[in-house]
Structures are given as C-alpha cells and as structure tokens.
Amino acid sequence: MLDTLSYHRHKLALIFVLLWSALMANLWLGEAKGWHAIDWLDVVGEGGSAVALGLWMLLILGSRPRGRVTDWLTLGLGFMCLAMWQDTLDEFLRLPAGQWWEQGLESVAMPLGIALLTYGLFHWHREQLAINRQLRGREQVFREHRWLDPLTHIGRAEYLKQQIRTLSEQPPLMLLMVDINDFSQFNRR
C-alpha cells in the first residue's frame, strides 16, 4: 500500500494543504467558542465523517494505480472531506458574518464532491466490468481474494475445492497436479 501511495504524493500533499489552509483561515478569522457552546454530537458525527472520508481516500490511493478513475474518486472524496472538515471546525470556532468562503466550503464542496465521486464510481464500474471480462476465464464463476496465495497468485486449496465442485457439474473434468521438489530453491532461482 505504501508503494502505491508514493505514486499519489502530489494528491496527498494537495489534500493536506487544503485541510491545513481551512484550519488556518478559521483560526485566523474565527473566535473560539466556549466548551458549553460546542455540540459534541456534531463534532463526533461531522469529525468522524471527515476522518472516514480521509481514510477512504487513503484506501483508494493505496490500492489503485494513477489514472482518471483514481483522480475522479479522489477529487470527489477530497471535496466531501473538506466540507465535513469545515463543518467540524464550525463547532469550535465562530466566524464573523459575511465570510463567503466558509459557506462555499460547506455548501458547495459537498454536492460538488458527491457529483465528482458519482462520476468516478460510474467509470470505476465500467473499469470493473472490463477487468471482470478479462478475469472470467481464469476465475470461472467464483472469486474470493482471501483464498489467493500471495506467493504464487493462484488459488489455495479452498479455492480449488470450490472450482472442482462448480466444474464437476459440467463433465468432462480433468485435474492435473504438478509437484516441484524444493520449490523454494526453484523459486529463488
């Protein structure tokens, strides 16, 4: 995951700068609310949502290659995260009236983020359909990523059993097994 995240360091830096800038602008222009004026339920709900959106972005960037689908998904989640971050900051700081950017961060960033995320998900869906068509011959009708061996990238015993069960309904069926002595030595060479 960390290797893949390094490909997206510019996106991560931009997201961090935007969140940091929003915090600094709120601290510079805002006035702290008293503890009694803070709605802690909103802090947990909005702050937790901002953290979850940030985590989703990290998961996407940590598991996807560079490309337009990744960009759309990240942009959408980024705008949504920024909107929730501003909502969270509002619970702690009171800004003077007439701050257009604060309203924009909350009211414009969220629907824009949802629209961009939806567009990204549409293209992700099309990408998945293409990948599924490509993998269908290898997987047949069954997919379970937990049953793949990380070394050989083929299915483990549970996967093989499921494939045999599925394919035995459509004879003829042939199973060929190859054993390589000292596989670890063979693999190193």
- Poorly predicted regions are none
Structural class: mainly alpha
The main sheet comes to: 2 strands, antiparallel
Termini gap: 27 Å
N to C succession of SSEs: HHEHHEHHHH
Number of strand elements: 2
Please count the helical segments: 8
Average pLDDT taken over every residue: 82
Using only C-alpha atoms, the radius of gyration works out to 24 Å
Strand content: under 5%
Strand order in the largest sheet = 1-2
Short description:
The chain is mainly α. It has helices at 2-7, 9-29, 40-63, 68-92, 100-107, 109-139, 157-167, 183-188, and strands at 31-32, 93-94.
Question: What are the main properties of this structure?
Answer:
2% strand, 8 helices, elongated, mainly alpha, 189 residues
Structure description:
This protein has 189 residues and is mainly α. The chain has 8 helices and 2 strands. A two-stranded antiparallel ribbon has the order 1-2.
